[in-house]
Amino acid sequence: MNEKDFPILHNKNKPDKNKKSGIHKLHYLDNAATTQKPQIVIDAHAYFYENHNANVHRGLYKLSEEATQMLEESRKTIAGFINANQDEIIFTKNATESFNNLANSLERTLVINKECNIVSTVIEHHSNFVPWQQLAKRTEAEFRVVDYDVKKNELHDVAKYVDKDTIIVAFTGMSNVNGLMPDVKKIISDIRKKNKNAIIIVDGTQLVAHKIVDVKDLDVDFMAFSAHKVYGPTGVGILYGKKELLEKIHPFHYGGNMVNKVELTDTNWAESPDKFEAGTIDTAGIVAAAQAITYLQKNNFEKLLKYEDSLKKYLLKELRKIKSIKIIGYDEKQLKGERALFGPVVSFTIDKVHPHDIAAICDEYNVCIRAGHHCAQPFMKKLQVMATARASLSFYNSKEDVDTLVEALKYAIKKLAANN
Fold first, then answer.
1. Which of 221, 161, 148 is nearest to 190 (CA)?
2. Any catalytic annotation for residue 375?
């Protein structure tokens, strides 16, 4: 992997008279929000429009057949990334749409009423919380929220919230707030022991970028993630579903391509995944997303993840040197590598300095971090903070990025904390 593989990392460098190099380098540390794109992804997107653009599945001419073949080859590549079957991958706009569409499909398929309960957790991103909360409200099902132990930095036992009336369990594989990585396989196994019929849904949006995921090994029913979180383009979501479940549930959109036969009084659906992909989907984006996966595989994804982990430990070590910084979630055991429970997403607060002010100061140093509630307001309330600053790492980051962040934070403390 070469930093030059990612054009924006050098195209957005700023002139700086105070630096010997004359350049103020871009330090992008907001990878949990979206990742930067390698040149191979950018080129693939343009190449499709320049050479293969046609509507898929509909044309009998060669150009349409080429586009269809590229789409299905991309589906196969993405399926292989998580060890799914090709026909178990459905394309949407993003993970948020995937969860909402899935909620609508399950509502149309299952009998959900006030005798049932739906389980989610307090640490979820809103996209894997609000759809299930609202589904429960519409159906009068009980909505159970798994709590979080702030002192132990651990999620409560999800299976304890499950009983024979649980119909859906939805939880994240990695928090976008503090990087917490629950033991997904164990959680699913424990849920199955209490209720083998509950539909288990995992938010893999952060997880797939920082851990090798095997959906068959996990035995998850559905998992969603977004291509833009894993070095692909925006506008492409991936929803995995077990084949036998996809065959049973109703589609969430109606229109072209997703039908087998339409009559005046009734419609017969196409086979999965077509029945869930109504209308024209973003073929160019999907082709580019597959190239992002290919890039990771060619560059030894496992090795890249080990580097990320080492950089995370360096970031934690440097942040801990600043007394007024409070890190959300990590403890000394994680820092020493005794427990690999957290991915490379680090949220923190600074005494007497608002997170938005921290981010603004960092921007003066050309350091990009996130500040806010991170679309996880129930988790923020549990943590008893309104917002945090968040630095999230990728394999294209370096110790120089971390050092510049720390320099910016020290300046923020000097400039702002003293005035409060």
1. 161
2. yes
- List the chain domain ranges: 3-30+300-419, 42-296
Q: How far is CA 396 from CA 7, 120, 230, in A?
A: 12, 33, 12
pLDDT in tens, the chain (420 residues): 667 899 999 898 877 766 655 668 999 999 999 999 999 999 999 999 999 999 998 778 999 999 999 999 999 999 999 999 999 999 999 999 999 999 999 999 999 999 999 999 999 999 999 999 999 999 999 999 999 999 888 899 999 999 999 999 999 999 999 999 999 999 999 999 999 999 999 999 999 999 999 999 999 999 999 999 999 999 999 999 999 999 999 999 999 889 999 999 999 999 999 999 999 999 999 999 999 999 999 999 999 999 999 999 999 999 999 999 999 987 655 555 555 589 999 999 999 899 999 999 999 999 999 999 999 999 999 999 999 999 999 999 999 999 999 999 999 998 876 666
CA-to-CA separations, 78 to 98, 209, 249, in angstroms, rounded: 16, 13, 22
* Residue written as token pair 């540390």: 29
Secondary structure tally for the chain: helices H, strands E: 15, 19
pTM: 0.95
Active-site residue among 116, 362, 368, 375? 375
Q: For the domain 42-296, what is the CATH code? A: 3.40.640.10
The whole-angstrom separation of Cα 290 and Cα 232 is 8
Q: What is the C-alpha separation between 162 and 392, in angstroms, rounded? A: 32
The dotted CATH code for 3-30+300-419 is 3.90.1150.10
